[in-house]
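Fill in residues.
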């Protein structure tokens, strides 16, 4: 526990100022985090980032992460949007599978593409959300952190019924609801201090949806790790695991907020 707390404090001391500043520093920081996350997920299937599939995935990721306001400047000269370029690179990935006579299989290619999209979409919307305003990133982070903490402490105190033991044996139904309740309380407090929601009903609806989808995001990453017999996605954050272990919920919550037109 002590190691987790120290790591969390150091990470917050490094990450919070970058979130506050926003702009290019924040975008570059997200590119770095996404690169590490891609390395972690590829490693689960023993695919090196320093390989042709890894390089193609990285190029795909960097294109996908490109903020909307920079698209015209950086890739407008190609006459195509960034998703077209992503699909071109995907075809190159499939071509590589043919050239190496299936020592790199189509299953491998599908995993690389899935991993790149999973990480790229979530982190892309994190960049876009910060451009919409600091308060929305704070709200998203608050939902994730309070849900996680509420679920942990409620589960420890009242947890009896397992939520999804095949994927995450320690999570409980009671913790699930405790996480949602904690998120609602802290979201209302945040809105009282810094009003940003159009109505309290909208705030509660979005908070409940984000809290639930965030917990499923955590379960989704747990399912990937369990399938590939990996305890943590990485070891970068002592006591916490890797970047994917810390951002798994946020990668689901951030796109949801855009889908609900909350940012």
């Amino acid at each position: 526990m002590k190691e987790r707390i120290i790591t969390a404090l150091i990470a917050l001391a490094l990450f919070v100022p970058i979130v506050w500043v926003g702009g290019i520093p924040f975008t570059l920081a997200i590119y770095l985090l996404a690169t590490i996350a891609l390395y972690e997920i590829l490693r689960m299937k023993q695919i090196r980032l320093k390989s042709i599939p890894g390089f193609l995935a990285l190029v795909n990721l960097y294109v996908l992460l490109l903020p909307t306001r920079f698209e015209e400047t950086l890739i407008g000269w190609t006459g195509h949007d960034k998703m077209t370029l992503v699909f071109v690179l995907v075809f190159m990935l499939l071509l590589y599978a043919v050239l190496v006579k299936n020592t790199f299989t189509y299953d491998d290619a599908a995993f690389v593409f899935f991993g790149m999209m999973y990480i790229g979409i979530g982190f892309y919307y994190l960049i876009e959300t910060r451009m919409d305003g600091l308060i929305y990133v704070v709200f998203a982070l608050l939902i994730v952190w309070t849900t996680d903490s509420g679920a942990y402490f409620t589960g420890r105190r009242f947890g009896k019924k397992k939520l999804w033991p095949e994927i995450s044996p320690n999570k409980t139904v009671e913790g699930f609801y405790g996480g949602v309740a904690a998120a609602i309380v802290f979201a209302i407090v945040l809105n009282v201090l810094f009003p940003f929601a159009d109505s309290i009903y909208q705030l509660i609806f979005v908070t409940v949806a984000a809290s639930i989808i965030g917990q499923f995001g955590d379960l989704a990453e747990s399912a990937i790790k369990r399938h590939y017999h990996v305890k943590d996605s990485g070891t970068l954050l002592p006591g916490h695991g890797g970047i994917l272990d810390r951002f798994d919920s946020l990668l689901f919550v951030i796109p949801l907020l855009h889908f609900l037109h909350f940012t």
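The radius of gyration is 19 Å.
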